Amino acid sequence: METRLKLLGNPAAEKALKHLAAVGRVLDDSPLSNVTRELVLLRASQINGCGVCVDMHTKDAEHAGETSTRLHLVSAWREATVFTDAERAALELTEHATRIADAAGGVPDEVWDNAAAHYGEEELTALVTAIAVINAANRLNVMTRQPAGGYRPGMFA
Predict the structure, then answer these.
(1) Are residues 91 and 43 in contact, defined by beta-carbon separation less than 8 angstroms?
(2) How crowded is residue 139: how many other Cβ atoms within 10 Å of its Cβ?
(3) Would you say the C-alpha torsion 23, 87, 75, 106 has a positive or negative sign?
(4) What is the pLDDT of residues 7-62, one digit of tens each?
(5) Does the residue 28 lie in any domain?
(6) Residue 154 pLDDT > 90
(7) Cβ-Cβ contacts under 8 Å for 128 (sequence gap 6 or more)
């Protein structure tokens, strides 16, 4: 696969990506747990087929202490017994929000209500923001065919 557009080292791309990264840093200070956030970022990236982000968020989650069992089961979270009810609600919201074009009404009320039952307003805001931002990053990487596999935790800090 040949990269269509180099994002790193491209002044225009780096300027735009700096703002996406800034949102990520804001989310670092949110009450949403880093574990939940990494699971959500990984799941959206799997759905969107973004190898760069799957690589990054798997490695970041491992680096933060997440188990390989849970990471391997993110794509099959419905059948897995290793996720909390709150994590399951976040993963379900992620799937519906990421596949928003597949549902005529967007995110169903019951999916939203389930997430809202587990997360307060600040956490829910952070969750929704994380889902939106990862979908944007996934699209940038997939459209431009960014190569995966070379990420090291903290390399963009």
Answers:
(1) yes
(2) 12
(3) negative
(4) 888 899 989 889 988 998 899 999 999 999 999 999 999 999 999 999 999 999 99
(5) no
(6) no
(7) 93, 97
The tally of domains found in the chain comes to: 1
How many other CB atoms are there within 10 angstroms of residue 20's CB atom? 13
Kindly state whether residue 118 falls inside one of the protein's structural domains.
yes
Q: What CATH number is associated with residue 115? A: 1.20.1290.10
Q: Is residue 22 part of a domain?
A: no
DSSP sequence for the chain: ---SS--TT-HHHHHHHHHHHHHHHHHHTSSS-HHHHHHHHHHHHHHHT-HHHHHHHHHHHHHTT--HHHHHHGGGTTT-SSS-HHHHHHHHHHHHHHTGGGSTTSS-HHHHHHHHHHS-HHHHHHHHHHHHHHHHHHHHHHHTT---S---TTTT-
Residue 8 within any structural domain of the chain? no
Sign of CA dihedral 14, 16, 47, 30: positive
Structural domain for 60, as ranges: 33-143
